[in-house]
Amino acid sequence: MRKINTRDFRLATRSTPHEVNRQIVLNLIREYQPISRAELARRMEVRRNMLTPLVRALVDAEIVYEEGTAPSVRGRRPTLLFLRTRGRLAVAADVRPGRSSVALADFAGRVVAREAVDTPASPVALVEALGASITRLLRNRALGAEPSEGCEGVGLVVPGMVDRRTGRVLYAPRLGWRDIDLRNRLSELVGLPVHIESAPIACALARLWLSGVESAAAHSFAYVSVSDGIGVGLVVKGEVLRGEAHTAGEFGHVTLNPAGPECVCGKRGCWESFACNAATVARYVEESGHGPRTPNGDGRLRRRRTPGMAIEEVVRRAKGGEPAAMVAIAETGRHIGRGLAAVVCAFNPGRIYVGGEVTAAWDLLEAPMRRALAEETLTDAARVTPIVPDRRPAEYRLLGAVALVAGPTFAAPRLG
Ligand SMILES: [Zn+2]
What we know:
Blueprint: H1 18-32, E1 35-36, H2 37-44, H3 48-60, E2 64-69, E3 79-83, E4 89-94, E5 99-106, E6 111-118, H4 123-140, E7 151-158, E8 161-162, E9 168-172, E10 177-181, H5 183-190, E11 194-198, H6 199-209, E12 221-226, E13 230-236, E14 239-240, H7 271-275, H8 277-287, H9 311-319, H10 323-347, E15 351-355, H11 362-376, H12 380-383, E16 387-389, H13 396-406
Bound molecules: zinc ion (ZN).
């Protein structure tokens, strides 16, 4: 699934499908809405009459609608074209260790209903729990005779590597699951198509499909998801990089220090063992004197359970000025920056998005993160790679799930 670059595209000729031009029109409307036909024609460098059938097809398919007027110097007031996102619904499911979220959202990512479910230990029980939750949400919002009417599919985001072809979860370290099927079982249960993806890749797709006008740099970027674990979604020229065996972007399990804390994957000192939510909480507990102290230093920080403390609470205390929480978050920023340096060295993206609960304390995170990135990268350009926080820290993974359903509407058609 490739995104059309609206700053660099070639119009299809008579010998290539109408579908290509239609998708270019659709993507221009998506990025520049509200937009008049005249402006569209200008951006495509074509005559208005060539646009007419393309726009008509999109309006007839109810993907685009016309409304309102724009000021015009010559007195004639053109109607404007908008992308239809309201009323087009997707189920978004975010599977996480402990608690999972299920939401009903429109194609712009506006959540209209949501609930949380406990994540059971077994995949079969999880499918049942998700299925029951999805059915409840759809029934409460039923738009037609069937609860699923008006809903175009389920986006399922999981903390693990996914084989796109089979839809199987290859390995989810934090859940301890290997080679399991969630997609087909859930699809059978709810009677809707289910699109499954690893969390960071889904979040990268949300940046591609659900955001507005972006610079050209936004076509090659890394999305770093910092939550229970750390994962990276890599996008090169508008297309997600998956690797030959679906493990591209697993920077979270790159070793930063072999003498570091034990990781859920069985190794020591992986990036995520320093910077995931549990590591931040453990640092706060230690700093605040609520837990046993260990000598300061990465190699000695032991992973330990901190029941009852959520990352949101540490963020809240840090933003409220509590020194121990501020130190813990700043230290997480430093560790995130060290890993970002590895991402930049390996991949050199145009920009890096960072999503996760901890980004709600961006003011505390940013400076140590940038410092670590600058210290561990090799050129001036690499040192100043733009780092952008995701704007909705509490919902960024649900948006990723919505993008799995909404994105294919806008993708470039596969040719040849
Ligand atoms: Zn690991």
